[in-house]
Every structure is written in C-alpha cells, then in structure tokens.
Design brief:
With 314 residues, this protein is of the alpha/beta class. Helix content is 44%, strand content 20%. The protein contains 9 helices and 14 strands.
Length: 314
C-alpha cells in the first residue's frame, strides 16, 4: 500500500501552513513545491526537524520541480499572487490565470490520477480554469472556500453565543467573496436552529462579517492575507478524500444543472470521499435564499467571463 502522497504547490504562507497541518495530521508524505530556489526545501526541513517533538511520522520534502510530485494522490494548489495596491482586478486575473493554468498542466502530467484542490484566487474562476485545463472529471477538481467560510461563520456565532464551536454546525452556498450566501436557516447549535439563540439583527451582522472576513484580516495585517484558516480548509478536504470519510463539506464544484446553474464552478454542499466529490447535495431554497444565490452566481459569472476572454476559452 505505502503512504498516501500530498503535493502542495506554492510554499508561501498558505502552502507552507498546509504542509504543517497535513504533516501533523499524518495524512501521508508531503511534497512542498515552489519556483523560489531554497524556500520550499528550507521550510520542509524546518518542519521535519519539528517531527521528533510532536511525534508525527510524515516525510516532508521541498522541491523546485515537478519530478518529486509524481503520482500524488491529492494536489493542493495555492499558487498565485495577492492583489497589490494600484493593481486592477483584471491584472490580477490575468497573472493568476497564467500561473494556475501552467501549474495545472504540469501537475496533470506528473499525477494523472490525483484530486486537485484549488485555493488560488479568484477561487471560483481558478477552479473552473483548473477543470478545463486538466480535462479531469468534475469530481476530481474541487475549490476550497466553503470549508473556510463555514469555519468563519461558526467562529463568529461561537463568539456571540459564548457556546463551544464544537456544537455549532453551519452551511453556506455561493461564490467565495462578498456575495457568498450563509444559510442561517440550515445552521444549528447541536440540532437546535441558531435562530432560537439569536435575534435576526445580530444574525444579519454575523452573516455580514462572515462575507467580509477575508477583507477584515487583510486590513489588519496590512501586508498579506489569511493563511492559517484557508490552508486548514484545504487540508480538511484532503483528509476527507484520503481517508474516504464521506464528509459533508461545502466545496466549489462544476455545476451542470444543479441549483439551476450550468457551466460554472460554484460553492454547494458536497460529500467528499475517495473519488473526490461523491455527491452534490441540492437544498430546497426559499425565495430569499434563491435571490441571494442568483446574485452570487452573477458575480462569479462576470469574473469567469473576463477570464474566458483573457484565456480564449469558449
């Protein structure tokens, strides 16, 4: 059998922290790949030197090429740049779609049977690009956003209610960004609807904070964006796949008619297991939720159409 193999492309904050989580969880051997000479090797060695203290058995190696990533079971892609002051969204889109497109081509050659987990932004659009570039079936190309956004929603509810986050379960849909659709109606504290604990006004504020959570961290850090939580979101998804856990985790996946949407990668509740996306769960939405979902889909489609123009995808 041998150990499972997880490759993480991009050894910046998100990628290196993902390697850390994956190693500590002993999900398998980890390859950290980045084009910057020495950086992935240094971070991998640092992590290996921590293994005796924590007692985790995982080999972690750093590399600047794709040779060492061969035959990975799961590949997490974090490559791309963050938007810099004065840079338009279109500039960012062009740079990141070039990076992600080229990374996916190389990954597919080295690991034709892997599941891809995309963390690069703009998330929904980069997941679509990865699907089209890889030519993989849709169950093996998954964007990480829902796991993170749900965790943020749970975190803020826990803070407000002063209740253990272990007992808070939430669900959300939609694109990763200000138009995501948290679903208070499907969110509970140990089975009791969250609406029993909190006023609509307070809940609306928490929903709003969840939507803008990434921006809140960017504003505080001033020179970067969140990395602990996004990297763990990707690793939790990898764990569900590698251990065939069949966990219900909202994921960004290609839709072909589900929720009335076609030819778009979009966040919906999914069951994650050995085949990647095992099942898409279709919730019965009320009029208000449907309207919010439609607005989110329009926002994702606008960016997607921009990217298609840039990359010449019909």
């Amino acid at each position: 059998m041998g150990r499972k193999k997880i490759t993480i492309i991009g050894a910046g904050n998100v990628g290196a922290t993902a390697a850390h989580w994956a190693a500590i969880k002993e999900l398998g051997d980890v390859v950290l790949m980045d084009i910057i000479e020495g950086m992935p090797q240094g971070k991998a060695l640092d992590l290996m030197e921590a293994a005796p203290m924590e007692g985790f058995d995982a080999n972690v190696i750093g590399t600047n090429g794709y040779e060492e990533t061969k035959n990975s079971d799961v590949v997490i892609i974090t490559s791309g740049i963050a938007r810099k002051p004065g840079m338009s969204r279109e500039d960012l889109l062009k740079i990141n779609s070039d990076i992600v497109g080229s990374v996916v081509e190389n990954v597919v050659k080295a690991s034709p049977n892997c599941c891809l987990i995309i963390v690069s932004n703009p998330l929904d659009t980069m997941t679509y690009l990865a699907l089209k570039t890889s030519k993989f079936p849709r169950n093996r190309v998954i964007g990480q956003a829902g796991a993170l956004d749900c965790s943020r929603f749970q975190c803020f509810l826990g803070m407000e209610l002063n209740i253990s986050i272990e007992d808070i379960k939430v669900i959300l849909l939609g694109g990763h960004g200000d138009d995501m659709v948290p679903m208070p109606r499907f969110s509970t504290v140990n089975g009791i609807p969250v609406t029993e604990f909190i006023s609509k006004e307070k809940l609306d504020k928490i929903v709003d904070r969840t939507k803008k959570a990434g921006g809140e961290i960017v504003a505080l850090l001033k020179t970067g964006s969140a990395f602990y939580s996004p990297s763990l979101g990707a690793v939790i998804m990898a764990e569900a796949i590698l251990k065939d856990k069949r966990r219900l985790i909202p994921s960004c996946v290609y839709l072909d008619g589900e929720y009335g949407l076609k030819d778009i990668c979009f966040g919906v509740p999914t069951i994650l297991g050995a085949n990647g996306i095992e099942k898409i769960i279709e919730l019965k939405l009320n009029a208000e939720e449907q309207a919010a979902l439609k607005k989110s889909a329009e926002s994702v489609r606008a960016t997607l159409n921009e990217m298609k123009k840039i990359k010449g995808i019909s």
